[in-house]
Amino acid sequence: MTIILTNDDGIDAPGIQALVKAVNDRKTIIAAPKHHQSGCGHQVTTTRPIHLQRRSDNEYAIAGTPADCVRIAMTQICQDIKFVLSGINAGGNLGVDAYISGTVAAVREAAMHGIPGIAISHYRKAKQNFDWDLAAKLTAEILTDLLQRPLEPGSFWNVNLPHLQPGEPDPKMVFCQPCTKALPVNYRIDGDDFYYVGEYGKRDRTPGSDVDVCFSGNIAVTQIRV
Predict the structure, then answer these.
(1) Span of the secretion signal (predicted)?
(2) Core-most of 67, 133, 167, 181, by most CB within 10 Å?
(3) What is the Cβ-side half-sphere exposure of residue 141, based on CA atoms within 13 angstroms?
(4) How far apart are CA 33 and CA 15, in angstroms?
(5) pTM, to two decimals
(6) Boundaries of domain holding 137
(7) pLDDT tens-digit series, residues 204-219
(8) Rounded distance between C-alpha atoms, residue 33 and residue 165, angstroms
(9) Which of 129, 131, 93 is CA-nearest to residue 7?
(10) Number of folded domains in the chain?
């Protein structure tokens, strides 16, 4: 089956390379934003041209949003897409983040057209570096499980990897509900300029929700419906 790989950090981001490693020998096409699109949500481009750069037979850099990439992939690049994978995002996409995230929007767009998908993100603790090799290993294990599970039409998986510290135990996959608590909204003010300073790691977390599971060191898996 043909799997589309995309993201919102851009086609040259290390996270999508880790995703390529995780899918191993499965047939894939990379259709990802040419530039960084983090936090763009489900924005689509309708009032200007979207430039497509073909880098190889199975890799396309698209000057649009993640949702644009999925639209172009399924209508112009491949007519037989069976799955869409988005990520691995450099940062969590937990709970209400799903409304903001371009990573999640890519698989939501696919789900709108009846194509199942998985959004994969990696929570970042205190601006520490990512271990992309470990992320690829965990993602490969997750894909082995989730690609075999049936999804109702209009549904998709949202997966968040924890940021493990040296010596911490291997994480477990935990199926849970998305947290509905709001993100921190705080600004530093300099004259008429407002600088966002909300601290992601201090967000409220409903016990047992995806935020709680991921912050506690396990892999949070939620099923979201369009």
Answers:
(1) none
(2) 67
(3) 12
(4) 13
(5) 0.95
(6) 2-225
(7) 999 999 999 999 999 9
(8) 31
(9) 93
(10) 1
| Two structure tokens written together for 41 | 């949500």
3-state secondary structure 39-72: CCCCCCCCCCCCCEEEEECCEEEECCCHHHHHHH
Structure-token match 């040259």, residue found: 12
pLDDT tens by residue, 155-172: 999 999 999 988 889 999
| Res 93: pLDDT | 97
The residue with tokens 């937990």 is 94
For 170-202, the pLDDT digits (tens) are 999 999 999 999 999 999 999 999 999 999 999
CA contacts within 13 A on the Cβ side of 96: 10
Radius of gyration of the chain (CA): 17
**168-204: buried (b, 16+ CB within 10 Å) or exposed (e) per residue?**
eeebebbebebbebebeeeeeeeeeeeeeeeebeebe
pLDDT band at 24 (very low <50, low <70, confident <90, very high): confident
